[in-house]
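Students often ask why we bother encoding 3D structure as a string. The short answer is that it lets us treat folding as translation between two languages. Here is a chain of 257 residues written in the first language.
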Amino acid sequence: MKRQTNDTTNTPAANTDADTDADTDADTDTGTDTNAALFPEQFARTRRFSLGVPRQFTVSPDGRRVLFVRTGSGSDPVGRLWQHEAGEERLLADPVVLMGGDSEDVPEEERLRRERARERSTGVVGYATDGAARLAAFALSGALWVVPTDGGGAFAVPTAGPVVDPRPSPDGRHIAYVSGHSLHVVGLDGDDRQVARAEGRTSPTGSPSMSPRSRWAARAATGGRRTAAASWWRGSTPPRWRGGTSATRRTRPGRRR
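And here it is in the second language, the structure alphabet:
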């Protein structure tokens, strides 16, 4: 009996494998094309993939607490203030809750500051702490907010005007801030004092700061080709953003002080 040999026995299987590989390649190409098409939308929605990413870290001197800002998700632009301690995260300030659902009203000075910093989120976009990181201050819709990091909720501090770039004193008793191109210092009880003001072509710039003993507040100011640093000492009269007084020092650009 003659045995017949079928040379095409394995052909269907071979064709099936080839078709599967072709389909896989097609699916891969389709997925790549889809991802490429979605990239501009994702890039815009996540504000250049910056939303949902922790930033602006502050470590307490004792190393027990870490403060940072983070939005709710990769598509949520509202920044919130968080604290990490003992392996757990705690939400310190949520703008949605503090503002009662109202939309944010950013003062002109703050809007310009955000543009210079290329800030793309809203809500809590920055903060500062006292020397021990027991107190954090931030501005929200021009209002000054303070929150203790060792317990307790955030509370608003009355001020003389819209707040920009608040900075607590090292002892946590006062907060320096800028409003209307003037430097103010306010206590936690709302006792507000203007300690320096802009005049003529002089324009304040940079962030306010306070001395280690919380007795002096200063902020740089520019006018023409010179740079001035106006300072305040408790009990003195408010100086102006110009030279010629004991509370003001001018230096040439690039000159060491």
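Translate back mentally: The CA atoms of residues 67 and 90 lie 10 Å apart. Keep this in mind for the problem set.
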